[in-house]
Amino acid sequence: VGPIPSADMEAFRKILQKANSVVILTGAGVSAESGVPTFRGAGGLWRTYSAQNLATPSAFRSNPSLVWEFYHHRRENMASKSPNNAHKAIAEFEHRMTKEGRHVSVITQNIDELHQRAGSVNILELHGSLFKTRCLKCKKVEPNHDSPICEALRGKGSPSPNETGELVPESLLPRCKLTSCGGLLRPHVVWFHENLDSAVMKKADEELNSCDLCLVVGTSSVVYPAAMFAPQVAERGVPVAEFNMETTPATHHFGFHFSGPCGELLPKALA
Ligand code: BJW
Ligand code: ZN
User: Fold this and answer.
1) ipTM attached to this prediction
2) Is 127 one of the annotated active-site residues of the chain?
3) 10 annotated as ligand-binding
4) Block means of pLDDT (10 residues each) for the chain, length 271 residues?
5) Where would a tag sit more exposed on the chain, N or C end, judged by fewer CB atoms within 10 A?
C-alpha cells in the first residue's frame, strides 16, 4: 500500500499544463451521468443476470437468443442517451491539445460510443462496440446501428426480472448479410475469458508506454487486463490521477485521487 494520493487540483493542473502526451483511461462511470447503468453499481443487473453471467462465450453458445436480447436492449437504450459533461470535456481537451501539437488518447472499456459522439478522435475501444457485429462463420466485423438489429428482436429484451419471453430461433437472430455466408452474428465485444484484440492491445501499450500523464476515470479497476494499465504507468514514475466517486483497489498506486462525479470534476480539471 502506497502513500495517500493527493486531491490538490492546482498541483494536478500544473502537471497537465506541461504534459505532452496524455492517456485518459475510462470505464462505465464516465457514462453514468448520461444515464447508462454501470456494471457493478445499482442498475447493473439485466433481469436477474450480471455481466459475469451474460458477457461470456459460454452464455452465447448455450443461449444466443438471451444474450442477443441483452445486447439489443442496451443498443436501443443508447438511442435516448447523450454524451455528458465528462465526455465533452475530454473531447474538447483533445482538440485543444492537438492544436498545440500535443497528444491525447482515450482508452475506453466502454462499448457505448459516447466518446465518439462527443467528438473524441483518438479512441481505442478495448472491449469493442455495441454497434459492431462479428460473423461467427466468416469473421467479418461490420458497423451496425440498425434499430432494431433484426425484426425478431423488435420489442424484445425487456430488463424486467419477471420477463419470461419466448426465445428467438437462431435462424431469426442477426445473420451475416453476405449472401454466400449467412452465418450467425455476435456482438463485437470482448467477453470474459476472451483475449482483447491484439492490434488494439498493441496500440494501447504504445500509448501507455509513451504518455507523460494518465487519467483514470470511472472504472472500478477490477477487470483485467485494463485494471493493470494505470498502475503500470504509475510504476514508471508517471503521474496518474484517478477520478471516481469511490476509491478502488488501484487507488493506492496513484499520485492523485479526485472524489466525485466526473461530469463535475473533469470540466474543472481539463479546462
Ligand atoms: C463514477 C461515476 C461518476 C460511477 N463519476 N465515477 C487476472 C489477470 C488477467 C485476467 C483475469 C485475472 N483474473 C480474472 C481474469 C479474467 C477476467 C477478469 O478480469 N475478471 C475479473 C472480474 C477478476 N478478464 C477477462 O476475462 C479478460 N480477458 C482475459 O483476461 O483474457 C485472457 C484469458 C483467456 C482465457 C481465460 C482466462 C483469461 C476480458 C475482460 C472483458 C470484460 N468485458 C466486459 C463486458 C464487455 C461487453 C459488455 O459491456 O457487455 O467489460 S465486463 C465489464 O467490466 C465491461 C467493462 O468494460 C468492464 C469494466 O467495468 P468498469 O467500466 O470498471 O465498470 P464498473 O461498473 O465495474 O465500475 C464503474 C466505476 O465508476 C465504479 O468505480 C464507480 O465508483 C464509478 N462511478 N459513477 C465517476 N458519475
Ligand atoms: Zn459471414
Assistant:
1) 0.95
2) yes
3) no
4) 87 98 98 97 92 96 98 98 98 98 98 98 98 98 98 96 91 96 98 98 98 98 98 98 98 98 98 95
5) N
